[in-house]
Amino acid sequence: MRATLLAALAASGLCFHAAPLCASRAPRAATPMMPIGMPKVAYRVPGSSVADWVGIYDRLYRERIIFLGQEIDDDLVNKIVAVMLYSDAEDPNKPMYLYINSPGGSIVSGLALYDTMQHIASPIATVNIGLAASMGSFILGAGERGKRIALPHSRVMIHQPMGGARGQAEDIRIEAEQILQIKSSLVGMYSTMTGQTRERILKDLDRDTFMSAEQALEYGLIDKIVSSVNEGMEPRQVYEGGLG
After folding, report:
1. Is 122 designated active site?
2. Among 29, 75, 128, 185, which residue is least crowded by beta carbons within 10 Å?
3. Where is the active site (predicted)?
4. Which helix (H) or strand (E) holds 40?
């Protein structure tokens, strides 16, 4: 019975383990197996003949492509800031591309990223590929003017900052004053980004305000809607990669 099954597998070209019946098949080209876990891609450093597997995000960083694809917090922002500072030091005239699909997060962390984007010389194109909500929408609008982009079915949500406090009454008052000061600053920066009046921004921040890509364009948070990766975006140099 076993011999009959193995013969049938050999005839079909299938091979589940190294067996004499499969030895006659043409050997496959020797290719390293991609490690399990974080997606990796083959990469060969320019000038080198040896390729290796690197994390896909690390590979994209080499092309000055950065992903903001989760809740904004100190750990994420510190990594993004480090990549931006290094890339800017490497070539301050070459643009970076910040792809955003984020529900928002920490205001303080978001402002640290915003300040870094304004601080460095490299132009930063922001691209909304899903949902840019809360601080995610703020970072989207902080991109280089003319390079703030959205994909057709992406969405934006803006709202006022949220916070909480506990403890003595004086501590709660101090925390509330801080939140109001931050809100006032955000209103001013949103107004500068979009061209909307402070009164309009205050009204729209009062509750969760969702926008389609078209509405975000009309509002002034983005500059264009693109359906192709090359539409309205500058060509990027692609480093030599692969295993060949």
Report:
1. no
2. 29
3. 134, 159
4. strand 40-44
What does the alpha-carbon distance between residue 221 and residue 131 come to, in Å, rounded to a whole number? 13
Domains of the chain: 40-159+208-225 (3.90.226.10)
Q: Are 107 and 135 in contact, with CB atoms under 8 Å apart?
A: yes
First-to-last C-alpha distance (Å) of the chain: 44
> Coil, strand or helix: which one is 124?
strand
DSSP symbol at 22: G
Q: How far is CA 186 from CA 95, 160, 166, 174, in A?
A: 25, 9, 24, 19
In degrees, to the nearest 5, what angle opens at C-alpha 38 toward C-alphas 32 and 42? 35
Q: One of 102, 109, 122, 134 is an active-site residue; which one?
A: 134
Is 159 an annotated catalytic residue? yes
The β-bridge relationship of strands 124-133 and 155-158 is: parallel
